[in-house]
Amino acid sequence: MEQLKQGSDALFILLGAVMVLAMHAGFAFLELGTVRKKNQVNALVKILVDFSVSTIAYFFVGYAVAYGVSFFTGAESLAAKNGYDLVKFFFLLTFAAAIPAIVSGGIAERARFGPQLIATAALVALVYPVFEGITWNGKFGVQALIKDLTGAEFHDFAGSVVVHAVGGWIGLAAVLLLGARANRYRKDGAISAHPPSSIPFLALGAWVLSVGWFGFNVMSAQTIDKISGLVAVNSLMAMAGGTLVAALLGRNDPGFVHNGPLAGLVAICAGSDVMHPAGALVVGGVAGAIFVVLFTLTQNRWKIDDVLGVWPLHGLCGAWGGIACGIFGSTALGGLGGVAFGAQLIGTLIGVLWALIGGAVVYGVLRATMGLRLTPEEEHDGADLSIHKIGATPEREVSW
Fold first, then answer.
1. What digits encode the pLDDT tens for the residues 134-156?
2. Angstrom distance (rounded) from CA 313 to CA 160
3. Which residues contact 251 (CB under 8 A, 6 or more apart)?
């Protein structure tokens, strides 16, 4: 029975890793559908190459920073217990690689390729694993301090703050340092719309992400004996709430409609294992509202050119999810308890602050040393031809 359990656990977390890996295709197509046609190839290439860089950075450095685990041992020891430790690394890698995938959407259409890959390596090797280790491995005594202050540790079951808020706030720092796309905001006060190139591809990306998210959340249990149907249903309810509120407030705009479920799923990650489904519905609905309202303010009033809205979607909805866990996870609102509002607030603020500092340092150093932006001519031609020498319709757009 023990051998069967080992094999089942390895298969369980491997399936989760594969589902979250598939989410990176969702990131790619969401970006592809949102950017203009001259930047579609770049969207696809960035996500795949960023994932590969993330794999190397996390394997050799990041995983050790977060968990103190090194893979520099013989293959015989690595294969023990059906290789569970290896597939656990694979699963957690897919979370880590979401950081540059999130940032990619914010800085799309004007970022240089090489500096972004360097940023990916630094973020996945050092910035992200530090907060991951704090939250999920009790490193540096932060969780113990939070528990002493509030009576409970900071709870983030599947990464509302650890993954999404951190990625979103790093993305905000990168977007601010990079600056807006050319002609996005004109001197006369006019705003160029830069509409999405393909609503069907945008919708495909949203659907792939939504389906994969059930691996992201449910498989965060990491062993089959801890699997929870509550997590699955809470994820479903938050997804529905985010969709409906975004459709209502966004006046049926397809961009808002297809980002609504993602907002709900971002927010429910932290407390999906402790909330009542009715609470999850409310959390998802509030997240949908946050995305619509803040995306509109960000783009139109504050003139922050966050192309896919990664700061409101991941940064703000992720922070809301972290705090909401301390509200709707309480027994008073039908939750399982074991969480504290104060702990959630402190942990969320630490994650946001760390992400802002890390993002500002990484992208600030790169801007000062290498530069972050394409030249005006390259941006005008598009990242596809400027970087990859081929467009999305190569029979018409080949550059030699």
1. 999 999 999 999 999 999 999 99
2. 11
3. none
